[in-house]
C-alpha cells in the first residue's frame, strides 16, 4: 500500500463558491428559471466546477417545495466530494432542501421512467429476490425491457431501483442486479422490494442506530482466520470516509492455530476502542481479521483530516511488538470487499 498524509480537498474552493452564489441570490434564480434550459445554464457550470463527474437534478421535496440533489451518480471516486458539498449546504427551508443522492419516489404506481426514448411504467416492474448474505440479488422484468438494446437494460434497472429505493439504499443493500425479459417466478412489484430492503436494513441496525457486526471465519495465507465486520460494509453508507487505513497489530497470546486467546482478544478490543476514540468522528473501525499472530484492523476515514496521523500516535507503545499502519485512497471500500457478509 502507498503511504499518504493528509491531502488537500481541491474541490473545497468550488464548493464554497457554489454556496456563496446560492446564498447571494442563486437559489431564487434557479427557482424562477425555465426548468428545461434555465436551470441547466445556471447549475451545470457551477456543479461541474466542483467536479465534472458530479450530476445534479431538481426533484419535488418532502418538507420543502424543491429538492436539489448533487450526486456522484454511482461513481465512488466522487461520493466524498458530493457529501462535502452537502455538509456545506445551508439549513433547509420551505423552498429548498438538499441531498447528495437521489431520493426514493413517494409513490411507484403511476410513475413513468423515461430512458433513451422509451417509457416504462414502474408499476409494471416485477422483481425476483434472492438473499445473498447481508444483501439481496435482484432480477428485474418489465414488459418493454426487450425493446431496449441489451447493453442498455442494466441502466434501466438501476434507474428503476434508484427511483424506488433511493440511490444510497440501492448501492448499499442490492448485490447482483440482472435484467430479464421473462417474468420471474414468484415475482412482485417495486413496492414489495422496498419492504424487503427496509427489513434487511432493520435486521442489521442496532438499537442505538449503529450498524451491527457479524463474525466470519475462513482460511488465509497465515492459516485459520477469524474476522468481524460491520453491516453494511459499503462505501455508500459513509461516502465521506474515502481513505483506507490498515492497522497491523501483532499479538503474542494465541492458540495452536495462531488465533488470538481470550486475553489477547480483550486487549485487541481495547486498542480498537482507543483508535475509535482518537479518530474523533473523522473515521471508524469497520472490520478486523486475525490470523497467524497478527490482527488487521480496517479503518475508513475522511482523507482530508489528520486521521491517519492520529491513529499512528494512538498505537505507539503496543506491548506485543511494532504496529504497522498503511494508508491508501479507497473511496469504493474495495479493501474490505472480501469481508462483506
TrEMBL record:
<dbReference type="Pfam" id="PF05117">
    <property type="entry name" value="DUF695"/>
</dbReference>
<dbReference type="InterPro" id="IPR016097">
    <property type="entry name" value="DUF695"/>
</dbReference>
<protein>
    <recommendedName>
        <fullName>DUF695 domain-containing protein</fullName>
    </recommendedName>
</protein>
<feature type="domain" description="DUF695">
    <location>
        <begin position="235"/>
        <end position="334"/>
    </location>
</feature>
Amino acid at each position: 500500500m502507498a503511504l499518504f498524509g493528509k491531502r488537500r480537498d481541491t474541490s473545497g474552493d468550488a464548493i464554497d463558491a457554489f454556496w456563496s452564489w446560492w446564498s447571494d441570490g442563486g437559489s431564487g434564480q434557479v427557482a424562477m428559471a425555465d426548468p428545461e434550459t434555465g436551470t441547466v445554464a445556471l447549475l451545470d457550470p457551477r456543479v461541474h466546477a466542483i467536479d465534472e463527474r458530479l450530476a445534479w437534478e431538481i426533484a419535488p421535496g418532502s418538507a420543502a417545495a424543491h429538492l436539489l440533489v448533487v450526486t456522484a451518480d454511482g461513481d465512488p471516486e466522487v461520493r466524498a466530494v458530493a457529501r462535502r458539498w452537502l455538509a456545506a449546504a445551508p439549513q433547509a427551508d420551505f423552498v429548498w432542501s438538499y441531498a447528495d443522492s437521489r431520493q426514493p419516489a413517494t409513490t411507484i404506481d403511476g410513475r413513468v421512467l423515461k430512458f433513451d426514448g422509451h417509457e416504462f411504467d414502474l408499476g409494471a416492474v416485477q422483481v425476483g429476490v434472492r438473499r445473498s448474505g447481508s444483501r439481496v440479488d435482484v432480477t428485474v422484468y418489465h414488459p418493454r425491457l426487450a425493446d431496449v438494446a441489451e447493453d442498455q437494460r442494466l441502466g434501466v434497472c438501476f434507474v428503476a431501483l434508484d427511483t424506488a429505493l433511493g440511490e444510497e439504499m440501492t448501492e448499499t443493500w442490492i448485490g447482483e442486479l440482472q435484467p430479464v425479459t421473462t417474468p420471474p417466478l414468484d415475482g412482485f412489484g417495486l413496492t414489495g422490494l422496498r419492504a424487503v430492503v427496509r427489513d434487511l436494513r432493520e435486521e442489521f441496525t442496532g438499537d442505538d442506530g449503529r450498524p451491527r457486526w457479524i463474525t466470519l471465519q475462513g482460511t488465509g495465507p497465515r492459516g485459520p482466520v477469524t474476522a468481524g465486520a460491520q453491516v453494511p460494509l459499503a462505501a455508500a453508507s459513509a461516502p465521506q470516509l474515502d481513505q483506507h487505513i490498515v492497522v497491523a497489530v501483532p499479538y503474542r497470546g494465541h492458540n495452536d492455530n495462531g488465533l488470538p486467546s481470550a486475553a489477547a482478544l480483550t486487549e485487541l478490543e481495547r486498542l480498537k476502542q482507543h483508535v475509535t476514540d482518537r479518530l474523533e468522528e473523522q473515521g471508524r473501525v469497520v472490520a478486523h481479521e486475525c490470523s497467524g499472530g497478527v490482527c488487521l484492523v480496517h479503518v475508513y476515514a475522511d482523507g482530508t483530516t489528520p486521521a491517519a496521523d492520529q491513529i499512528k500516535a494512538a498505537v505507539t507503545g503496543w506491548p506485543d511488538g511494532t504496529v504497522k499502519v498503511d494508508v491508501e485512497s479507497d473511496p469504493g471500500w474495495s479493501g474490505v470487499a472480501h469481508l462483506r457478509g
